[in-house]
Amino acid sequence: MLDFPRWKTIGISIILLLGILFSIPSFVPEKTFNSLPSIAQTKVNLGLDLAGGSHLLLEADIADLRKTQLANMEKTVRAAMRGERGPDDDIGIGELRVASNQISFLVRDQTQLDEARDRLFNETQGAGLTGQRDWNINIVDVTRIVLTPTNAGQTQAIAHAMDTARDIIDRRVNALGTREPTIIRQGNDRIVVQVPGLQDPAALKELIGKTARLEFRMVDANADPNEAAAGRVPVGSEIVPYAEGEGNGAAFEVLRRQVMISGEQLIDAKQSYDPQSNQPVVSIRFDSGGSNTFAKVTAQSVGKRFAMVLDGKVLSAPSINEPILGGSAQISGSFSVASANALAISLRSGALPVKMAVVEERTVTPELGADSIRKGAIAGIIATISVLTLMLVVYGRFGVYACIGLVFNVFLIIAIMAAFNATLTLPGIAGFVLTIGAAVDANVLINERIREELARGRKVFQAVELGYSEASRAIFDANVTNVIAASLMFWFGSGPIKGFAVVLTIGIVTSVFTAVTVTRMFVAHWLRTKRPTSINI
């Protein structure tokens, strides 16, 4: 016990000093925090219930998802009918019809009907191991194949789309510079978004709600404008309206249904400026496959027009004056710097697989958050003072060491949370207060064990040594069970439950360190210096 190595004393002292230094930024005002060096700009973030912010409940448009599902299957059918061994392996089909939640097409050569069905059979196999299919394949009128989605396929598509939407929303929200948003699924078709500290919920709603489905499609040069105005367009084409403020007076364009290249092949998008007009634009860059496709199509279509379509609205429809090589392009329109940057974020994060509508919005004001902090702080102060008073009265000098360890414990918890950029919520404050009791509990076990050893007639040094060593096993066992419980809460919980589990876990680790190691260092130094023959504990 007396042989407490100098290197260990120095190491523990450095840890405690770092804990104090890294916890200080969490207590300073925002203006002071921003003036600190970048290495010191780490602090504990406050959750929605403490700092205020926005709460949104989003609901998926299932009808839009089914429309997307049909469009994807249409592409799959076209690809399946193209042979892998070249044009000689193609299966000739008539125009695909997409209507009434089904896809149908005519197989021109009846002898190829079974081959066409077999190819589709492989493409529509469900992802699970139950043998369920995503699509039903039926033959109607001898040569027409009809595909309809199965219930299992639609359920799986909804689940996959909602998981993807949650991940994309998370990337978009974090790209705004916010910290620790809570984004979780609720039910089959809803997502809860909570962003603490965000002062502009309208911008958040606009960013989240933007589907950002980017497509490049050819303009149908054969379409008659008068016929199109009456709603009659050539087979394989459709009318697509211009976005608000675009088109230079034109209301729509007639575009080919087939997508030349889509936003899924983007690898980067960022806000920049047009070198000629100096207006904000969005510069985009495609992957290798998209670059090759873009170059090939534009080389074959010099003199023709193509349209950039965002979320079903035409942004612009320029002419192709020369092949566009290099895989880069720019999207121009009536953009401000903020809207161009928001579009770039949406494109970088990927297109939402389904449209999301805000069905509930709540705003927590900072005043309510301040009230929660005040009440939580009062509870914490009362609990801390009560515990400290009890330890001082009951254990004297050893109670003083326990109180000092408890103060260091608070600094270490805050420092570790700041280092991990963690968020403190109201349940987190509850976990914080709980760790104070856990820290003192360890010292109670140690001190009571020392008392027992002294009552058995042990010498002071031997009693203290046995008190720490024997109590440490019980402390370790007790805290392992707490960590297991906290881990389960973190794994299966969400939002505030996770916040409580994080604070509790950090507090358990730091409380064991301060209650056992730090107080032992103080006791060892006192015993080595004073060498008392008796102690009052």
Automatic annotation (TrEMBL):
GO cellular component: plasma membrane
Subcellular localization, as worded in the UniProt entry: Cell membrane
Domain (Protein export membrane protein SecD/SecF C-terminal): residue spans on this chain: 356-526
Bilayer-crossing regions: 7-28, 376-395, 400-420, 426-446, 474-493, 499-523
GO molecular function: protein-transporting ATPase activity
Membrane topology: Multi-pass membrane protein
GO biological process, one term: protein targeting
Entry keyword set: Cell inner membrane, Cell membrane, Membrane, Protein transport, Translocation, Transmembrane, Transmembrane helix, Transport
Pfam families with a match to the protein in the record: Sec_GG, SecD_1st, SecD_SecF_C, SecDF_P1_head
Primary localization class, coarse: membrane
Start and end residues of each Protein translocase subunit SecDF P1 domain: 162-220
InterPro entries given in the database record: Acrflvin-R, SecD, SecD/SecF_arch_bac, SecD/SecF_CS, SecD_1st, SecD_SecF_C, SecD_SecF_C_bact, SecDF_P1_head
SecDF P1 head subdomain domain: residues covered: 252-354
Function: Part of the Sec protein translocase complex. Interacts with the SecYEG preprotein conducting channel. SecDF uses the proton motive force (PMF) to complete protein translocation after the ATP-dependent function of SecA.
Listed name of the protein: Protein translocase subunit SecD
Record gene name: secD
